[in-house]
């Protein structure tokens, strides 16, 4: 679960998500990403460092330039870890044992909803 959290933290940034999408289209140089993203070179480089730190991006030096690409194996691993996490019952996730036990106790005592404040009446009917 920790590895998945690291992937998701890095991917939670809209700019990094956009960079990943462009790198899925083709390998790109920083200068190309700067032009496409319309942000400063140091900012693009910082985003690429974060992507590289979790293995989602790779670099290849070509003389004075560096070409970046998505590490598709790591991206696939990220997808697999997310799918496994979502498919795994809560009770089987070691990092959620405490919360699951608390949930079961609340359900057994009938206090699940009673621990919540009463709902606020919605005077706006936006769904009509």
From TrEMBL:
Designated name of the protein:
ArsR family transcriptional regulator
Ranges for domain HTH arsR-type come to: 1-97
The record's section on SUPFAM superfamilies has: Winged helix' DNA-binding domain (SSF46785)
Q: Which SMART domains match?
A: HTH_ARSR
Q: Which UniProt keywords apply?
A: DNA-binding, Transcription, Transcription regulation
* Superkingdom, taxonomy of origin: Bacteria
The protein's matches in NCBIfam families, at most eight in alphabetical order, are given as: HTH_metalloreg
One GO molecular-function entry: DNA binding
């Amino acid at each position: 679960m920790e590895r998945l959290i690291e992937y998701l933290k890095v991917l939670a940034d809209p700019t990094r998500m956009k960079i990943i999408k462009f790198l899925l289209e083709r390998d790109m140089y920083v200068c190309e990403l700067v032009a496409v993203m319309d942000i400063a070179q140091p900012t693009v480089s910082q985003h690429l460092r974060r992507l590289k730190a979790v293995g989602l991006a790779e670099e290849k030096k070509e003389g004075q330039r560096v070409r970046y690409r998505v590490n598709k194996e790591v991206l696939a691993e990220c997808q697999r870890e997310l799918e496994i996490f979502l498919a795994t019952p809560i009770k089987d996730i070691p990092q959620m044992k405490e919360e699951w036990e608390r949930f079961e106790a609340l359900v057994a005592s009938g206090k699940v909803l009673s621990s919540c404040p009463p709902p606020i009446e919605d005077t706006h009917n936006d769904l009509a």
